[in-house]
Amino acid sequence: MKYLYLIRHAKSSWTDDSLRDHQRPLNSRGQKQLGPISGALRAAGVLDGPIFCSNATRAQQTLAGLIPDDLRQNTHTEPELYTFNYKVLIDWLRQRRDEDSITLIGHNPALQELADYLLKQAPESFPTCAFMQISLPIKHWHKLAPGKGQLEQFLTPKDVSYGHFNRKRKKVPGDADAPLARYIPEALQHQYQRMRDLETGVVQGFDDEFLHQYRIAIRRSRAIAESVSEIRGDTELRKQIKPLKKHAQATSQLRDLHVFLADLEQWQLDGGTHAALTCSGARSYFANQADIEHQALARRIASKKYRKDMDGWHRLITSRHFEKITRRLTTKDIQKALSKRMTQYSKQTRQLGSQAPDEDYHRLRKLLKRIRYLAELDKPVFREMLRQLKYRQQRFGDFQDLHVQISLLTGFRDSIATEPDMLESVAGLNSLIGRLESDKSGVRDDILNLGDIDGHPVL
Predict the structure, then answer these.
(1) Which of the given ranges, 45-49, 144-148, 337-341, has the highest pLDDT on average?
(2) Domain ranges of the chain
(3) Matching CATH topology for 2-157 and 330-459?
(4) Nearby residues of 446 by Cβ (< 8 Å), 6 or more positions away
(5) Are 344 and 367 a contacting pair, CB within 8 Å?
(6) How far apart are CA 2 and CA 148, in angstroms?
(7) Nearest one of 102, 60, 107 to 88, comparing CA atoms
């Protein structure tokens, strides 16, 4: 088996008309493409074999940006690869010797047409700075034949970097000053398409922002639907919300681990705590847990059940029935549902105390979200309320993050507590847990001082 990696050079500049094509450099967008795709190449094993690059300036700059200095001993510049004719690439490959894998950095249309030649069904396009991994069931390169290759992986900058993915994306439809109730079907269809488009980035897992944005899209869709369901009491809508809720919940543990690992890198830790995290292997442990959660989420997204649920959701939000039940929503309907939720929130808030269990704060946080989502159905009317709710929700979110981080650290500490050589590490972890408990207590006090939504103090 042979493996062929094809990499198209990053985005190049056309601003200087005096330059020949061979001399054109990368533009600023091309330079930004290199960092994200470089990590994906390393993960795919591209650096394990020889790398051959066109001698064109844009290809050489791509090579320099993708391959670290200390790993360039296996790179080679090949003038023949500066070609737009795929037949030249085929002839060049057939002359190779016994390399198990070969990486080519070159140009279109030659790379695209080479993929068309080797694969029964190649990707429709080969964007700049994209890479393709092709397995070939041959023992020698001179036996290259059409349609015998298998596409193992195809990634573009948009698949590994949320910044590139989100470039020039369409915004949510509708006027920002118009009530959402007027265009709920269109808004949910936009969120649905966004979820589906984000799935590739979530599955690849190179940029945590894909998961964050995916969670926003699926949870916002669920929230809007639950708000409509609460007002309308529609059975079919309630039925379709359940699988959406399950898929949203399946992302929670991974998101918590992402936040925790990011915070671990940013926290200012004393020497003892830093040593405890290092000696105990805590960072590696939680990174491994995140990897396990990511693999489980990737399997879920690839499952038939997930596709069936998403298809069912799409059918509902594009149906006449759904349009009918949303077009009749009025400010009065929303106000009635809001009053009910706010009364419930105030009652629960006044029962809080500094000794209340964390679960009471979590329930209140979820209720606060429902209030916000209801108010967002008519932003012009409830704009001031939404402004007040935002800070409250941030504080509850901080409380939730601290609760999760303390639970993660406590569970890990308990798992190593009986090991004799971990006594110092356990002490360091206890110090960090104590610090987070103090932070959580401060956030709890802030929440209690806020009182209920009308400003009444917590008794």
Answers:
(1) 144-148
(2) 2-157, 169-328, 330-459
(3) no
(4) 395
(5) yes
(6) 11
(7) 107
Tell me the one-letter amino acid at 99. Answer: E
Are 99 and 44 in contact by the 8 Å Cβ rule? The answer is no
Domain 330-459, CATH: 1.40.20.10
What is d(CA 280, CA 264) in angstroms, rounded to the nearest whole number? 14
Provide the edge-to-edge strand list for the sheet that holds 2-8.
Answer: 75-77, 51-53, 101-106, 2-8, 131-136, 150-155
Whole-angstrom distance, CA of residue 126 vs CA of residue 319: 36
The identity of residue 172, as a single letter, is V
| Cis amide linkage into residue 109, ω under 30° from 0 | yes
Superfamily of domain 169-328: CHAD domain (1.40.20.10)
DSSP 193-240: HHHHHHHHHHHH-S-HHHHHHHHHHHHHHHHHHHHHHHHH--HHHHHH
The two tokens of residue 228 are 């409509």
Residues 378, 375: Cα–Cα separation, whole Å = 6
Is 60 exceeded by the pLDDT of residue 456?
Answer: no
Between the alpha carbon of residue 94 and those of residues 3, 47, 150, 433, the distances in Å are 13, 21, 18, 61
Residue 300 has pLDDT above 90, yes or no: yes
Render pLDDT for 163-176 as a digit per residue (tens, 0 to 9). 999 987 776 666 65
> Taking the CA of residue 418 as centre, how many other CA atoms within 13 Å lie in the half-sphere pointing to its CB?
3
Domain 2-157: what homologous superfamily?
Phosphoglycerate mutase-like (3.40.50.1240)
